[in-house]
TrEMBL record:
<dbReference type="Pfam" id="PF00067">
    <property type="entry name" value="p450"/>
</dbReference>
<comment type="similarity">
    <text>Belongs to the cytochrome P450 family.</text>
</comment>
<keyword id="KW-0349">Heme</keyword>
<dbReference type="GO" id="GO:0020037">
    <property type="term" value="F:heme binding"/>
</dbReference>
<keyword id="KW-0408">Iron</keyword>
<protein>
    <submittedName>
        <fullName>Cytochrome P450</fullName>
    </submittedName>
</protein>
<dbReference type="InterPro" id="IPR017972">
    <property type="entry name" value="Cyt_P450_CS"/>
</dbReference>
<dbReference type="GO" id="GO:0005506">
    <property type="term" value="F:iron ion binding"/>
</dbReference>
<dbReference type="InterPro" id="IPR002397">
    <property type="entry name" value="Cyt_P450_B"/>
</dbReference>
<dbReference type="InterPro" id="IPR036396">
    <property type="entry name" value="Cyt_P450_sf"/>
</dbReference>
<dbReference type="InterPro" id="IPR001128">
    <property type="entry name" value="Cyt_P450"/>
</dbReference>
<keyword id="KW-0503">Monooxygenase</keyword>
<keyword id="KW-0560">Oxidoreductase</keyword>
<dbReference type="GO" id="GO:0016705">
    <property type="term" value="F:oxidoreductase activity, acting on paired donors, with incorporation or reduction of molecular oxygen"/>
</dbReference>
<dbReference type="GO" id="GO:0004497">
    <property type="term" value="F:monooxygenase activity"/>
</dbReference>
<keyword id="KW-0479">Metal-binding</keyword>
Length: 411
C-alpha cells in the first residue's frame, strides 16, 4: 500500500467505522506529502506544535492556487463572510472576543453553568418521550434534537419556532454529510435554500433584538458596544450560523460516539450508572478516544515551515489529523484502550491554540448530562448492530444511526 493510497483509504467511506488502524499506519510517516501541495500531519507533538504556530493559517484565501483544489478543500457556496473559525488574527481575535463576552469568562462566567438545570430538563424530556418503546435510534431520538434545542434556547429562538430551526439544521447537516445516492446539484440547491431561509430568519431575529433585547446570547451580540466596536449584520449572521452548525454537529457526534463506546464497554457503563461523577473523566477520555472532529483539513502555511525533517512550503494545504494524534503511543500509553481513569489526558479533541473549540464548556456539560442520564435510566441497553451505519463525513465522524434496545427505563 502506498502512502497516497493510504490517505484515500482514510477518506473512503469503507473505512469510516474504524479508521484507527489506518491512522497507526499513517503515523509511520509523521508528515506525509501527497503531490506538491498536500501535507498530512498525524503525530501528537507535531500537530500540537502546528496548532500553536502563527505561521499556520485557517483562512482558505491564503492557499496557493494549486493547493486550493486538493482533497476536501471544496467550500460550500455562501453569501456570508467566513466565520471567525476560518479567519486569522487580528480579525479572528476581534470576532472571537466579541462572541465570547456573552458566552463565558471573564465577562459572563456563569452562562454555561447556569444552563445546567435547563439542560437536565431537556434531557429528561427527551428520555420521557421514548414512551413505552424498548427500541430507539439514539441519533434521531436523542443526540440530534438535544443540542439543537439547547442552541435555540441559548440564541433566544422562540419555543414555537424551534421545530423550524430543527428542520433547517437537519437539512444543512445533511449537506455537510452528502448521500452518495443523491444528486449533487439537488443537494446543493436544497442546502443553499435552507441556509438562505435560516439567514432570513436570523436576520429577522436580529431586528427584533435590536429593538427589544432579551437576556439571550443573540441579544447580547446585537447590542454590545465595547473596545472592539459592534458586529456588522453580516458578521452577526455568520457568527449565529457558526454557533448553530458547529455547536450542533460536534455535540451530536460526541454524545453518539459516547453511547456507542459505553455500550462496547459495559463495565464502564455500569460504573457510570452507580457514580455520576465519573461522567467528567469519561467525556474527556471520549474526546481522546473517539473525537467528534477527526481532522482539520482547512489549514495552510503563511511561510515555509520545517517540521520533523520535512519542509512544508508557503501556501500548501495542511491536514492535522487530530484523531490520529490522540492515539499516538508516543504521547498516550496503551492508546487504543478506552480508559476513563487515564491520567494527564491532554487530548486534541477540541483542538488547541487560538482556535481551541469555542463551545467546549457547553459541549462537555451536554455530553456529561446526556450520558449520565442514559446510563441511569435505560435498563440493560444493547446495540442492535455493531458497527452501526456511519455518516459519510470523514471530518465530522460519527454514526448516522445508533439503534439500541432496552428493557424499559427508570423514572
Amino acid at each position: 500500500m502506498t502512502q497516497a493510497t493510504l490517505l484515500r483509504q482514510i477518506i473512503d467511506y469503507s473505512s469510516r467505522a474504524d479508521p484507527y488502524p489506518l491512522y497507526a499506519e499513517l503515523r509511520k510517516t509523521p508528515v506525509l506529502q501527497e503531490g506538491d501541495d498536500l501535507f498530512v500531519v498525524s503525530t501528537y507533538w507535531e500537530i500540537k506544535s502546528l496548532l500553536h504556530d502563527p505561521r499556520i493559517s485557517s483562512d482558505a484565501r491564503n492557499l496557493s492556487p494549486s493547493a486550493a483544489g486538493t482533497l476536501l478543500q471544496e467550500e460550500e457556496a455562501s453569501a456570508l463572510p467566513p466565520a471567525f473559525l476560518r479567519l486569522d488574527p487580528p480579525e479572528h481575535d476581534r470576532l472571537r472576543r466579541m462572541t465570547m463576552r456573552p458566552f463565558g469568562p471573564p465577562e459572563t462566567p456563569r452562562r454555561v453553568h447556569n444552563m445546567r438545570g435547563e439542560l437536565a430538563r431537556i434531557v429528561s424530556g427527551l428520555i420521557d418521550g421514548f414512551g413505552d418503546r424498548n427500541r430507539i435510534d439514539v441519533v434521531d431520538d436523542f443526540s440530534y434534537p438535544f443540542p439543537v434545542t439547547v442552541i435555540c434556547r441559548l440564541l433566544g429562538v422562540p419555543r414555537e419556532d424551534e421545530a423550524l430551526f430543527h428542520s433547517w439544521a437537519d437539512t444543512i447537516a445533511a449537506g455537510l454529510d452528502p448521500d452518495p445516492g443523491q444528486d449533487p446539484g439537488e443537494r446543493r440547491r436544497v442546502t443553499q435554500q435552507a441556509r438562505t431561509e435560516l439567514g432570513k430568519y436570523l436576520s429577522g431575529l436580529i431586528d427584533e433584538r435590536s429593538g427589544a433585547p432579551g437576556d439571550d446570547m443573540l441579544s447580547a451580540l446585537v447590542t454590545q458596544h465595547g473596545e472592539d466596536g459592534q458586529m456588522t449584520r453580516m458578521e452577526l449572521l455568520s457568527t449565529a450560523s457558526l454557533l448553530l452548525i458547529a455547536g450542533h454537529e460536534t455535540t451530536v457526534n460526541l454524545i453518539t460516539n459516547g453511547m456507542l463506546t459505553l455500550l462496547r464497554n459495559p463495565d464502564v457503563l455500569e460504573r457510570l450508572r452507580g457514580d455520576p461523577g465519573l461522567a467528567l473523566p469519561i467525556v474527556e477520555e471520549l474526546l481522546r478516544f473517539e473525537p467528534p472532529v477527526q481532522l482539520l483539513p482547512q489549514r495552510t502555511t503563511l511561510a515555509d515551515i520545517d517540521i520533523n525533517g520535512v519542509t512544508i512550503p508557503k501556501g500548501a494545504s495542511v491536514w492535522l489529523v487530530l484523531a490520529s494524534g490522540n492515539r499516538d503511543p508516543q504521547r498516550f500509553p496503551d492508546p487504543d484502550r478506552f480508559d476513563p481513569d487515564r491520567k494527564d489526558n491532554q487530548h486534541l479533541g477540541f483542538g488547541s491554540g487560538i482556535h481551541n473549540c469555542f463551545g467546549a464548556p457547553l459541549a462537555r456539560l451536554e455530553a456529561q448530562l446526556a450520558l449520565t442520564e442514559l446510563a441511569r435510566r435505560l435498563n440493560s441497553p444493547r446495540l442492535v448492530e455493531d458497527p452501526p451505519p456511519y455518516r459519510q463525513n470523514a471530518v465530522l465522524r460519527g454514526p448516522r444511526h445508533l439503534n439500541i434496545t432496552f428493557d424499559g427505563f427508570h423514572a
